[in-house]
Amino acid sequence: MSVAFRREGDDEHKEPEFELPIAVGPNLVTPRGLRRLVEAVAQIEAEIAATGDKEARKKLQRRLRYFHTRQSTAQVQAPPADGSVGIGSRVTYRLNKAEKTITIVGGDEADPALGCVAFSAPLARALMGAEAGESVEYQGRDDAIAILAVETDPETQA
């Protein structure tokens, strides 16, 4: 039989398992974000201890490496004391005649459906450092966003 038609096993044809991608740049988090990272590590460690399936264990260990890295590189940020927009701030703004409220958080905490936007997102970057009553540039338009209110989101500090 020709070598071209011989198959040693299925494993040699599988795609390699790469590590979960980690965002470039600092891992800035709120106190809640750090707590969630610690909880994720504990949960995954418990799942690893409870599983006997080798493949499931490998996938869990891969996730555990990601969360261990995120936990060890986390830099907890206190909200700005001067009333400006920063990580942990709840911001009410007007954009295109629509009023919205978001909370700026770390990358792993982000959930736009719940109004939590990562500090690295374009909208958050446009708002960072501004204060209530100011207008900021966004998407090439001067004064595109009017900041109506800025406060510390108490949920991010717990």
TrEMBL record:
Keywords: Kinase, Transferase. InterPro entries: GreA/GreB_C_sf, Tscrpt_elong_fac_GreA/B_C, Tscrpt_elong_fac_GreA/B_fam. Residues 82-150 form the Transcription elongation factor GreA/GreB C-terminal domain. The keyword Glycoprotein does not apply. Coiled coil: none annotated. One of its GO terms (biological process) is regulation of DNA-templated transcription elongation. GO terms for molecular function: DNA binding; kinase activity; RNA polymerase binding. This is Nucleoside-diphosphate kinase. It comes from Sphingopyxis bauzanensis.
